[in-house]
Amino acid sequence: MALPGELWAELAAEKRIFCSVLLFSWAVYLWEAFLAHRQRWVYRTTTHVPQELGQIMDSETFEKSRLYQLDKSTFSFWSGLYSEVEGTMILLCGGIPFLWNLSGQISGRAGFGPEYEIVQSLVFLLLATLFSAVTGLPWSLYNTFVIEEKHGFNQQTLGFFFKDAIKKFVVTQCILLPVTSLLLYIIKIGGDYFFIYAWLFTLVVSLVLVTIYADYIAPLFDKFIPLPEGELKQQIETMAKSIDFPLTKVYVVEGSKRSSHSNAYFYGFFKNKRIVLFDTLLEDYSALNKEPAEGEDGENEETKSKTKNKKQGCKNEEVLAVLGHELGHWKLGHTVKNIIISQMNSFLCFFLFAVLIGRKELFAAFGFYDTQPTLIGLMIIFQFIFSPYNEVLSFCLTVLSRRFEFQADAFAKELGKAKDLYSALIKLNKDNLGFPVSDWIFSMWHYSHPPLLERLQALKDAKQE
């Protein structure tokens, strides 16, 4: 009787590759499911406010956040299971070569033969993203109009949702297809050192997208208006000047039309930095805090009650503290460090891709016996072969991110914002129904930000000093 190791050794190389990819995918899924189960147990069993949270969270808010996170966790379990089963069935049933052949038939009917590989690749990409959008639509609808609606966050109508989804798909294709075609062309003509040119191209594309996103892409989905002249804008400009942050503009984005979750960020390079504040972050600007005009837009009582009792956002001093934290990321070089890490990883991946792209068994493992399309090679190597490396890298970046968050909090403390940041974190946690109790393994693996209690404790020490 043959031992399992002997049976494995007797398998063809492509079969071993395929089985390894499938087994690792399910191993990752089961690990994630195990962590999620531990966290759901915390949601189910922690029904009373812990003693250390008694001063910062009332029982009503605690219960609301517990139920919200429990619903999200349950939804994540089922959507994750569906995604894993779908991915497995696509691999087992030869979905990737089937879609590639279908793409060839479509491009052939348009007059582009097999020699036009880039055209076929673009058709394949369009069909693949369309399939992903269609199969993900029911999950997105349920998440938005059942879970987010149930817990008071959703502000979208069904019409707005579909209009937004179509717009996102179109904008994505307008960026993805030209960029992919140029990348494939560079790989084709780049010779032995194509990986260097491909890396440089993706570097330029990523920098351009970061530069134009808030000015040209984001306004397609949300309205951006300059922060009106007043005390808050003056205080923001003063704080930016005090740390030599080259601020040029401050915008408010009307995020309240989409969701009542809040956010703030900055963008831009060199001497052209801009700050973007979600209106839901600002107590004085959020539409959720305003009484709707009688009869406005035919608004009914149900909509009014939905808007009422929404989160209040932060006071000006707290907004400044949050921005102090965000600007700390810039001052401490976190943004530059993240870009460097990202580009080092990108270069390494393209180099390894250049080493592996000639291995025919990689293509054969996924049903490509006669052809080795470049796009398929990118998908196989980056998505499947690199998956163990990607998991390790993701965890390391999560650990690094938590370290950066503590450092940014410490920077805000140095600006004298400890007290205001302390109260802002409590408000934002309450407004977004964040659950302050977490399983330690789940937190360690997933949380890019430190748990609330750890951040508050560090700020509390500063306040006492």
Short summary:
This protein has 465 residues and is mostly helical. The chain has helices at 4-10, 13-45, 59-92, 95-109, 117-150, 158-189, 194-217, 231-242, 301-307, 316-331, 334-356, 360-364, 374-385, 387-414, 418-431, 440-446, 452-464, and strands at residues 224-226, 247-253, 264-267, 273-278. The longest helix has 34 residues, at 59-92.
Description:
Helices cover 68% and strands 4% of the residues. The chain has a 4-stranded mixed β-sheet with strand order 1-2-4-3, with helices on both faces. Strand 3 and strand 4 form a beta hairpin. Helix 4 crosses helix 5 and helix 8 runs parallel beside helix 10.
Keywords, separated by commas or semicolons:
17 helices
Topology diagram in text:
Elements: H1 4-10, H2 13-45, H3 59-92, H4 95-109, H5 117-150, H6 158-189, H7 194-217, E1 224-226, H8 231-242, E2 247-253, E3 264-267, E4 273-278, H9 301-307, H10 316-331, H11 334-356, H12 360-364, H13 374-385, H14 387-414, H15 418-431, H16 440-446, H17 452-464
Parallel strand pairs: 2-4
Antiparallel strand pairs: 1-2, 3-4
